[in-house]
Design brief:
This protein has 142 residues and is mainly beta. It has one domain: Thrombin, subunit H, CATH 2.40.10. It is 9% helix and 41% strand. It has one helix and eight strands; from the N terminus they run βββββββαβ. Strands 2-3-4-7-6-5 form a six-stranded antiparallel β-barrel. A hairpin with a 2-residue loop joins β5 and β6. The longest helix is centred in the C-terminal third of the chain and has 13 residues.
Length: 142
């Protein structure tokens, strides 16, 4: 494929596109709730509306809010709660047209130190809330 950059896939787990209606929320005090874009046993990406409206600089993930200790997943009839995570990136989405003053951000998180029960619950959630496997860039050319 001409013009396509080859990237090395660093993820350990298969990534899946989330089904419509699958949402993630960070601990209740953070006010970060949004639709899951993709998810795996290792982590997820989700979009949310930045309720700070630029008042607080969110780009520095080293100074994350102390209330952001766990993430919760839900969809129609399915729920997984209190999953520990670390933020990999949190960036403003600039490629989507916006008709409001609110900014959309995309946060990518990696699950950390999951218990056996959390792994089991996450696996069950994945089996019931994904629409398709997302191919690794390196697999597309094989």
């Amino acid at each position: 494929m001409v013009g396509r950059k080859r990237t090395v896939e660093r993820r350990k787990s298969k990534r899946y596109k989330a089904a419509d209606g699958a949402y993630a929320a960070i601990s209740p005090k953070s006010h970060k709730l949004g639709q899951i874009i993709d998810i795996s046993m290792g982590g997820l990406a989700f979009k949310y509306i930045d309720t700070n409206n630029g008042d607080i600089k969110n780009d520095n993930i080293e100074n994350k809010n102390d209330s952001e200790e766990s993430i919760f997943l839900s969809s129609m009839g399915f729920y997984v709660g209190d999953l520990p995570f670390k933020t990999i990136s949190d960036e403003e989405v600039t490629n989507a047209p916006s008709f409001s003053a609110m900014k959309v951000r995309e946060r990518k998180v990696q699950f950390t130190d999951l218990s056996f029960k959390q792994l089991f619950d996450l696996d069950y959630y994945l089996r019931n809330n994904v629409s398709e496997h997302i191919e690794n860039p390196s697999e597309e050319t094989n």
